[in-house]
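Work Package 3 committed the consortium to producing structural models of liganded targets before the mid-term review. Because experimental data for this complex are still outstanding, the team generated a predictive model from sequence and the ligand definition alone, so that downstream docking and mutagenesis planning could proceed in parallel. The input record is reproduced below exactly as it was submitted to the modelling pipeline, together with the SMILES string for adenosine-5'-triphosphate.
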Amino acid sequence: MSIPKQAGSTLTEDSAGDGEVLLRVSGLKKHFPIRKGLLQRQTGAVRAVDGIDFEVRKGETLGVVGESGCGKSTMGRLITRLLEPTGGTVEFEGRDITHLGVGQMRPMRRDVQMIFQDPYSSLNPRHTIGTIVGAPFKLQGVQPEGGVKKEVQRLLSVVGLNPEHYNRYPHEFSGGQRQRIGIARALALNPKLVVADEPVSALDVSIQAQVVNLLDDLQEELGLTYVIIAHDLSVVRHVSDRIAVMYLGKIVELADRESLYTAPMHPYTKALMSAVPIPDPKRRGVKSERILLRGDVPSPIAPPSGCRFHTRCWKATEVCRTTEPPLLELKPGQRVACHHPENFQDQQPQDTVLLSVAKEAAELVADEVLAESAETSAAVAAVAAEVSEAAEAPVAEDASEAAAAEDDAEAPASEDVTDGDNK
Ligand SMILES: Nc1ncnc2c1ncn2[C@@H]1O[C@H](COP(=O)(O)OP(=O)(O)OP(=O)(O)O)[C@@H](O)[C@H]1O
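The resulting structure, written out as tokens with the ligand in place, is given here.
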């Protein structure tokens, strides 16, 4: 087992990995004002996106997941500049596009396209699909070689539709076919980045796979870069190279798919993953543990202090209530914002467990999950201690102290949890 190197910085050039960065987002915020009364005075704000950093590399698919209301769609609309950010920056191909006006954005609109969730409401029912798919050419004043009609028909066949259906209306198509029309429209101007907001969640499960496969094939053929937004991991797990997990306007974990699946570090990621059934024949008969999160996502108008997930986390301690954990690259290619990460050394081992919160959350978390969580943290800490002992004497002391302290800290937590469960 290799010991993950701890990094002290947040988003660095290195953490962007090998690929060339197409889109870089730093400290991005969107606060929707809440206005009341006759004078429409601002009384508060919905902090839909509240300071997020990530980058999208050329040719990759970044999946963005999180429960309803965590700010995924707002993030998608911010990076496509359909919404004006409250703070932070968006850079596309190294150019700051955060505050470009409509005119300055026009050429950029060709490069960044969006596919919407609902194929029923996103297509104008009074227009033929020829007009719908051909609209981007008109808007951008582009005359494709061979004419608009020919190009639209080519696009229709690219997405698996009959080009002869050029003159039909959206209602004559099924949900899956309508989503293909939406995809054809998004591809019309040969974009570099496609942001797909829940592209398949309105479709039947059998059709979902077809549309996902189509997106996959198109990426390969056309060298597209995707940001795919979904509320659970079942869709993005198949198509994403890296996955960002959002909770209440923040990114809590960002990692490559493999790391996220084999060793998720944020308890929220672990909970999200436990909700996705894994069709693995090797695991047949193995009891899978589901982590049920209590209650809804808290309100983004007044998010919880410190770590926003602490009110639902079975590992929450005092520091989680008071101090917001930064998004740190704790393992190469895996960033997490947590004081008590899974599958890694506890960052605050001596901290006092928030009994009430942990107990409440633990009632919904299986004993096995808690035991496994305690075991992995202890195992990582123990190996860390061994390695540091071998490397350097003074460091060794610190590490074994930390490991011992973690054991101390784990013990009462597990007891509380068992108590809670027995109630
Ligand atoms: N135009 C708006 N004005 C005020 N609040 C908004 C607006 N758009 C979104 N919100 C709020 O911002 C928060 C984040 O919404 P958003 O749609 O981005 O979340 P989401 O994760 O995409 O959820 P869903 O999966 O349900 O679409 C929600 O609380 C939502 O009510």
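Reviewers should note the following from the model. The pocket of adenosine-5'-triphosphate is lined by residues 32, 46, 48, 66, 68-74, 231, 300 (CB under 6 Å). These observations will guide the Year 2 experiments.
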